[in-house]
Specification:
With about 220 residues, the protein is α+β, with helices and mostly antiparallel strands. It is built from 2 helices and 11 strands, in the order ααβββββββββββ. Strands 2, 5, 6, 9, 10 and 11 form a 6-stranded mixed beta sheet that branches. A 3-stranded antiparallel beta sheet has the order 1-3-8, with no helix packed on it. Strands 4-7 form a two-stranded antiparallel sheet.
Length: about 220
């Protein structure tokens, strides 16, 4: 090995051995460098990816760092508002001395409350001026009427059916003044033409309702025993 044998000079063989040795070292060195590069590159890429993920998780988007998220902004809740109470209707205005309108006239029927069957009770029709000024009202008897109704609303008697009356009665009513018109009921049924047979009203619960021209009263209870 140390003494080359051949027809060529020894220097030629030594140069060939030196060239082979250099090539061998170059191959070995390149392979080692490539392995180190591959290992280092894999570790570097993993570290860079981890650092990027950490940065992405830890840091909010650039816009959120400048403008706060809408979810973090609390809109103040306004206090509950109470519904306004409905305004009370104003009292109707009545011109002093003018005719009393239906809206300033109160109409009422007064009854004994309970009467025996076949009796002749006295009923009262009451007219009241509810305005704050005097006014005039036509109170003619032909404009007045009281009717008797049963529980089903059937008309059983009317004060103008058999004995209609007439008068000329226009009055000036002072504020709060009441006018009372008494009326006797004979305890019998009737109808507007007074042609049907009149019979006594039997025991039961009934109502009386009054009318003064176009103004009507609330119902008043009457018991017949």
């Amino acid at each position: 090995m140390l003494h080359p044998v051949g027809p060529l000079p020894a220097a030629v063989y030594w140069r060939r051995r030196l060239l082979v040795l250099v090539l061998l070292l170059a191959v070995l060195g390149g392979a080692g460098w490539l392995g180190v590069s591959l290992l280092g590159g894999s570790d570097g890429d993993a570290a860079a990816a981890e650092a990027t993920a950490t940065t992405t998780t830890a840091q909010p988007p650039a816009l959120d760092r400048v403008v706060p998220s809408l979810a973090s902004v609390r809109t103040p809740t306004p206090p509950p508002t109470e519904a306004p109470e409905p305004a009370e209707p104003s009292a109707p205005e009545q011109e002093a001395g003018a005719p009393c309108g239906d809206d300033v006239v109160a109409l009422e029927v007064r009854t004994p409350g309970s009467v025996p069957a076949g009796s002749q009770p006295v009923l009262e029709l009451v007219v009241t001026n509810t305005s704050d000024v005097p006014c005039t009202r036509v109170l003619d008897e032909e404009l007045q009427e009281i009717v008797l109704l049963d529980a089903a609303g059937t008309r059983l008697w009317g004060s103008n059916d058999c004995f209609p009356e007439q008068s000329d009665d226009t009055r000036t009513l002072a504020p709060g003044e009441q006018v009372v018109f008494p009326l006797t009921w004979g305890g019998l049924t009737s109808e507007p033409t007074c042609s049907a047979e009149r019979v006594p009203v039997g025991p039961g619960q009934y109502v009386l309702r009054a009318r003064l021209d176009t103004k009507t009263s609330p119902d008043a209870a009457l018991e017949v025993t």
